[in-house]
Amino acid sequence: MINKILPFLMLVVLISCKNEDKNQKTDNLKIEQRKKDSINKVVEKNLKILDEIEISEVSLKNRGYNTRAADVYGSGITMYFTIKNNTDIGISEILLEGEFKFSEREYSYKDEISYEFRKGLEPGEKQEIAMRPSPMSEWNSKIKIGDEGNFNLKLLEIKDYSEKIISSKSN
After folding, report:
1. What values do phi and psi take at 6, rounded to 5?
2. Do 45 and 95 sit in the same domain of this protein?
3. Rounded to whole angstroms, how far apart are CA atoms 167 and 52?
């Protein structure tokens, strides 16, 4: 009699194991989906933080050598912009993408620019920035005195006071 029942019991155990495997796989898929959803929410929140930083009054000036302005301010490219922190996070550093689109040309020059706030940028604070790329920077060799065009800045990344990246856009 045991010989007749044993195959039946083995079949029941096998079916039971398959159902448990199927349930385990379903549970694992649900967990993975919840993880992905959670990560996507964090990414969306971080991108919204970037949108809360205002950059305005963007301009670029190139001061030539042997001019009075160059004697006072130094020669080469100077980038000007105003930034306002509309977040509730203090900012220590930003990463920008600068683009100079030459007038009546298809060519534009793009490069990343980082700026570290000497005393930080507090929530609600607004600062006017005048920054100069390194004398060896491509900005100084690509844009010459008399070049006309539009200069734009796009915020790519912000860091808080502990140097932790709070928000970042990948290119």
Report:
1. -55, -50
2. no
3. 11
- Tens-digit pLDDT profile for residues 107-162: 999 999 999 999 999 999 999 999 888 777 888 888 887 888 999 999 999 998 98
The owner of tokens 């920054």 is: 131
CB–CB of 55/153 below 8 Å? Answer: yes
Chain mean position to CA 4: 68
Domain span including residue 32: 1-51
Residue 23 sits in the same domain as residue 88: no
Answer positive or negative: Cα dihedral of 132, 138, 141, 145.
negative
Is-contact 151 131, C-beta < 8 A? no
Q: What is the CATH number of the domain that holds 82?
A: 2.60.40
